[in-house]
Amino acid sequence: MNVPPAPEPNEAAAGPKPGGPPQGGPSQGGSSQGGLPPGGPPAGAPPGTGRATPPPPGRTRGAFLADLHALPGRVSVRLRLTLLYGLLFFLAGGMLLIVTYLLVADILSNIDVGVYGVATSEQLEHLRQEFIQQTMRQLIGRSLLALAGVGVIALVLGYFVADRALAPLQKMTTTARQLSESTLHERIALEGPEDEIKELADTFDAMLERLGQAFDSQRRFVANASHELRTPLAINRTLLEVALGDPEASEDLKAVGRTLLATNARHERLIEGLLLLARSERELTSWSPADLAEVAAKVLETLGKRTDGPEVTVHTELTEGRAMGDPVLLEHLVSNLVDNAIKHNVENGEVFVRTGVLDGFAACQVENTGPVVPAYEVDRLFEPFRRLHTDRIESAKGAGLGLSIVRSVVRAHRGTVYATPRPGGGLIVTARVPLAL
C-alpha cells in the first residue's frame, strides 16, 4: 500500500478528487471546508427538491368530497383545537344572542308607549311596534358585531391555550426524536398535575427504562462473551506458534498449523470487533477535543506498514476538523473506514481520505475504487456481519463489522454517517461528528 506523507492539519493536500461530490451527502445549502465536497441528501431520503406536480385536470365532485373528508387528518392538533374552541364560543354566543333577543322582545312587548297630545289607539300601537322593531334591529346588529369581535379574540386566545396544553406533548416528541441506542438514559421527567398527559409521560419514561435495561443487558452479554473467548483463542495461538516453531514438525503439519493460525487470527479479529462494537454503543462518559486530521494521519501511518490486502494508492487531503468526543473511538472510526476501503478494493486501486469541516460538523470522508455497489445494498452494509452480495461468507476480508462499528461510534458521538456508490465502482463514506467549541 502506497501512502503519501500527510499534509499539515491546516494545509490542504494537492491530491485529486475523482468522483466529484457525492450524490448522497448532506444538503447543498450548508457550508463545507477542508475539501469535503458537499452533496445532496443521503440515498433513500424522501424526494422533496423536484418540481411540484400539477393537479390533474377535470376534478370530479367525488374527488373534491374525498379531499374534504381527508382535510381533518392534514390539520395539526393545535389548529383543530383552536377551531374547536372558536366553534364552541360562537355556538354559545349565538345561543346567548337568541336568549337575549327573546327576553328583550318579551320585555318590550309589555311596555306602553305614550305621546304628548292627542293620538288614537291605532296610532299608539303603530308607534309601539315601530319602537320595538327599531330597538330589536339595533340590538341584533350591535350584538353580532360584538360577537364577531369577541370571537376573533377568543380564537387568538384559544390558539395560545391549545399551544400551552400541547407543550408537554411537544416535549415528549422532542425527547423521542433525540433518542438512540446510546441516549436511552434520557427521560421526559414531566412535572405538573397528575392528569392524563402526566400519566402518558410517566409511561413513556418507564418504557425507556425497560428498553435501556434490555440494551445494557445485550451489551454486557456481548462484552462478557467476547472476554471469555479471548483467553482460549490466545492459548490456541500460542500452541500453534510453538508447534510451527518445532524443527521436527513435518511440512504437512506446518501447513495445517498455518491454516489454523490464520483462522485463529480471524476469530481474534472478530472478538476484538465485537468488543469494540459493544463499547461504541455505550454512552460516552468523557468528551475531549480531537483533530480528525491528526487522527487520520496517525491511522494512515499505522496502516501504511501492513503488507496484506490489495496494492492500493492512498491520496490524502487532511485539513483541520476538531471534533468533540472520545479520541480512542474516533481513531477506531477512521481506522475502520480506511481499512474497509483498502480491503474491499481492486488491485492497483485508489483510496482518498479527506478531513475537514462540513455543514458545521467535523467530518471524515473516505472514498475508494472497487466493485460496483448497487444503491439498494448501501444501507445493508452498515448492519453487522453484512457484506456486499453476501451475508456471512467470504470472511477472509474481515468479520463484517467495520461499517457497523463506524455507525455505532458516530451515533455515540451524536453525529451522522452516510454512504453513496461511487461512479465506476467503489464507495464514498462520510462521517460527521460535532465540532469542538
From TrEMBL:
Stretches assigned to the HAMP domain: 163-216
Gene3D superfamilies referenced in this protein's UniProt entry, alphabetically: 1.10.287.130, 6.10.340.10, Histidine kinase-like ATPase, C-terminal domain (3.30.565.10)
Membrane topology per record: Multi-pass membrane protein
Main location: membrane
Domain of life, source organism: Bacteria
Catalysed transformations (reactions): ATP + protein L-histidine = ADP + protein N-phospho-L-histidine
Keyword RNA-binding recorded: no
EC number, as in UniProt: 2.7.13.3
CDD domains: HAMP, HATPase, HisKA
Location(s), subcellular: Cell membrane; Membrane
Domain Histidine kinase, residue spans: 224-437
Disordered: region residues: 1-61
Record field: transmembrane: 83-104, 144-162
First-level EC class: transferase
Keyword Cytoplasm: no
One function term, GO molecular function aspect: kinase activity
Keywords: Kinase, Membrane, Phosphoprotein, Transferase, Transmembrane, Transmembrane helix, Two-component regulatory system
Pfam families, alphabetized: HAMP, HATPase_c, HisKA
Biased composition (Gly residues): 26-37
Annotated PANTHER family: SENSOR HISTIDINE KINASE CUSS, SENSOR HISTIDINE KINASE YKOH
Name used for this protein in its record: histidine kinase
Lineage of origin: Bacteria, Bacillati, Actinomycetota, Actinomycetes, Streptosporangiales
